[in-house]
Amino acid sequence: MKRKVIAMCLTAIMTTGAFAAQELRMPGMFSEGMVLQRDMPVPVWGAAHPGATVAVSLLGQKETATADEQGRWRVTLKPLAATAERQSLLVAATHETVIPIPNTKQTGKIKTEEFLLYTNVLVGEVWIVCGQSNALMAVASSDGFDAMKAEAPKYEFIRTAQISRRNAHTVKEPQDDVQSYWGPVKWEDSRYSALRNTTSDIPGGCSAISYYFARELSKAFSAKGEVIPIGMLEATNIIRVESWIAPEAAAADPVMKEFAGKGYPWATGRSYLANIGPLVPYAMRGAIYYQGEMNAGDLNYRHGLNALIRSWRAAWGSEFPFLVVQLPGFIEHKAGTDARLDMDASTLKAIAGNDEKHGFITVREAQRRAARENPNVGLAVTIDLGHPTDIHPPRKREVAERLALLARRLAYGEKDLAAEAPSPTETTFSGNTCRVRFANANGGLVVNGKDATGFELAGADGVFKPATAAVKDDTVTITATEVTAPTAVRYAWRGYPEWSLKNAAGLPATPFRYPEE
Q1: pLDDT of 182-232, one tens digit each?
Q2: Radius of gyration over alpha carbons of the chain, in Å?
Q3: Bridge partners for 91 per DSSP
Q4: What is the pLDDT of residue 340?
């Protein structure tokens, strides 16, 4: 229970002055049920009376700071060991206000002491989940929900903090707080329950991606005999990538700067100002990003995703692991629309159909290249987990399992773990043959089915024709009867493509084309 106490006393002194009172407060992500990040410095911050002395106590530590002229204060706790036992976080602020003593020539001081006490604090692993509807889609809407719910008591130390999806179009200035709360996993048994309810802007049930990811990490820690609380900060909104980029980072990128200069509200970093900036510098291990549907067909998406990664890392001052979900197979949304979850009708219409030139293709390619071009970025390939007529495919558990594998490799040092999808690393042409060598074959490439399908070749005319492929070890040899001198190759290059290639660990190869454009 968070408790607040204010105590005051009066002492006579010989000075004069006055100060506007300001109540001790902390941002919304500091609440009962919070999870603090283990094994790294933990910033704690808030506001108090200007000049107040603020002391923060937790697990035997006590750190102090003085509130500045705007009342802002911040302390940094030394790295904490993980604990699943409830701990108490005490924040105490003390300040003195000079006042005249009635009927005398003297002045006095009113000493005010304020306290915030949180008695349900865990220490473990913290991750941010960000994206649009597929990131916020409720766990109750995913495949296997009943079985998952039955097993939920095994994973009692998973906590979620659902960040309000503040209307990004109305935010023009940086915000210093978000509406949020921590707590045990919450779900509803109705589809699309992770949505704004009628009384607040906080979602209902927790994100399926968020919960399943935390569950997989819990399993991995448990296998090593560790009980580690997992905290998931969920910041989602049905918005384009440009809105999640810090404005200063967008201004530094010529392509993103051009968008902002045209006055598009989503291109001015408003979702960042509203919902990500206020989280900084909350200590966390890494981030998951599942977005791109609203940028379908956007040839500049790669610039946006790269700028987003850079801007978040600059804000936290760390090259933390950043996990990207590559968009799955999809053609046209016919599953029934929901105004609370779906994009607007014109955007959905623009995405629909034209499988060979579908808007998801360019986004997937941008996501693949962003993972290659930025350090410590993992790509969860999901081309096999989509649905041709549902933009919200329900197989979220498998997506989260692949994200957790990447996290274990990039964030937790399991370097020998097969976590990354096969990706082309070397392409050569000779006569009528193309050979593509793949990284992350992990024991050899495997064909899902009888034949290696999904490959196409093109010659100097640039017209792609269906090709046959033979797989051996980490290399695929490709030929096409209609292309005698190939100069270009592509794989799974459709909105909802044929796919056939995976590694021995069962992870599907990423769609790709060569040469890249």
Answers
A1: 877 766 544 444 443 333 344 457 889 999 999 999 999 999 999 999 999
A2: 26
A3: 56, 116
A4: 66
Of 16, 363, 29, nearest to 180 by C-alpha is 29
Q: How far apart are CA 27 and CA 293, in angstroms?
A: 31
pLDDT at residue 4, as a whole number: 58
- CB atoms inside a 10 Å sphere around CB 74: 15
245 vs 452: CA distance, rounded Å: 39
Tell me how far apart the terminal alpha carbons of the chain are, to the nearest angstrom: 56
Of 179, 177, 147, nearest to 163 by C-alpha is 179
pTM over 0.85: yes
Both structure tokens of 58: 């937790």
Q: Distance between CA 112 and CA 94 in Å, rounded? A: 6
Rounded (10°) CA dihedral 7, 10, 13, 17: 60
- Three-state DSSP class for residue 91: strand
Q: State how far the Cα of 215 lies from the Cα of 205, in Å rounded to an integer.
A: 16
Distance from C-alpha of 74 to C-alpha of 56, rounded to nearest angstrom: 9
Burial of residue 209 (CB within 10 Å: 0-12, 13-18, 19+) is: buried
Whole-number Å distance between alpha carbons of 32 and 118: 6
H or E, element range at 383: none
- DSSP class of residue 122 equals E
**DSSP secondary structure string for all residues of 271-296:** HIIIIIGGGTT---SEEEEE--GGGT
321: Cα within 13 Å, side-chain hemisphere:
23
Q: Please tell me the distance from the alpha carbon of residue 278 to that of residue 178, in angstroms, as a whole number.
A: 6
Q: Which residue has the tokens 């799974």?
A: 492
Q: Residue 197: its pLDDT value, please?
A: 38
Q: CA dist 63 to 53, 104, 151, Å? A: 11, 39, 40
Which segments in the chain show pLDDT lower than 70?
Answer: 1-21, 165-169, 186-204, 261, 263, 265, 339-340
